[in-house]
Structures are given as C-alpha cells and as structure tokens.
Amino acid sequence: MTKMDLTENFKLEELVYSYTAAVCKIENSPDEATIASLKQLCEGLLQPLRNHIGKPITVLSGYRSKELNSKVGGVVNSQHLAGEAADCTTGDGPEKLLSALRASKLPFDQAILYRERFLHLSYRPGKNRQQVMIR
Predict the structure, then answer these.
(1) Strands (E), the chain
(2) Are 83 and 124 a contacting pair, CB within 8 Å?
(3) Least buried of 1, 7, 45, 101, by fewest C-beta within 10 Å?
(4) 21-36 pLDDT per residue, tens
(5) Contact at 8 Å (CB) between 68 and 28?
(6) Is the full-model pTM beyond 0.90?
(7) Per-residue pLDDT tens digits for 68-98
(8) Phi/psi at 52 (nearest 5 deg)?
(9) Integer Cα distance of 135 and 128 in angstroms
(10) What is the CATH number of domain 31-134?
(11) Is 132 exposed, middle or buried, given 0-12, 13-18 or 19+ CB atoms closer than 10 A?
C-alpha cells in the first residue's frame, strides 16, 4: 500500500494498521471506495476534532476487513468495514475526547465510549445521527 495523507495529521497507514492482522497474517487492505470513506472520516470528523482539542488523536483501530473484523469480535455490520469508523483515544483518555466532541458541535454518526479504553467515532456525510452511547 502506498503512503497517503488523508488529512494534515492522519495517514492511511494508521487507519488500516492492525496488530491482530499483522500477527495473524490477515489481509487488511481497503479498496478505493473504502479509502474514500476513510478520507471523509478524517476530513469531516477526526481532523476537525484534533484541531478543536489541539492535541494528537491516536487511532487504535480503523478500517477492518471482514476476516479481521470477525477475528476481533466486531459486529457483522460494523462501520469499520466501510471505512466509516475509528476507535480513538488521546493522552487525556477517551472520556475527555467525548467531552471535547460534545463541546465541538461537530457532526458525527456515533460516539460510543468504551470506558477507559477508547471512543468509537463514526462519520457518514449527510447521514449522521449524533448518537452517543456509553458501555
């Protein structure tokens, strides 16, 4: 996969990297349509949120192939499969990231807080539900 900047601070490699995929030798390369969705996720949500907080956002899991999604226990209709979601955190933790998202008023589809682990963020242009869940 060629190196590609999706936005100023987010690269395609970080949105497709998976330790599980590497260890288990699972192919995790998105197609062009999925790369376009990852770019929209970064342009529409991740980069503006990073700009809002003024600190780096760490992507723990972005795109997942069907095989990888199954391996990590993802739901069959996961937005990760379409390049519409990323599990993220910051040095301040996922709870602070959720607070910053709420304060930013940015459009998002889902924000699912997995306490003390990560914040699942998804984005679908024109179809954002602004749905917040805490698990």
Answers:
(1) 58-61, 85-89, 110-114, 118-122, 131-134
(2) no
(3) 1
(4) 999 999 999 999 999 9
(5) yes
(6) yes
(7) 999 999 999 999 999 999 999 999 999 999 9
(8) -65, -45
(9) 20
(10) 3.30.1380.10
(11) middle
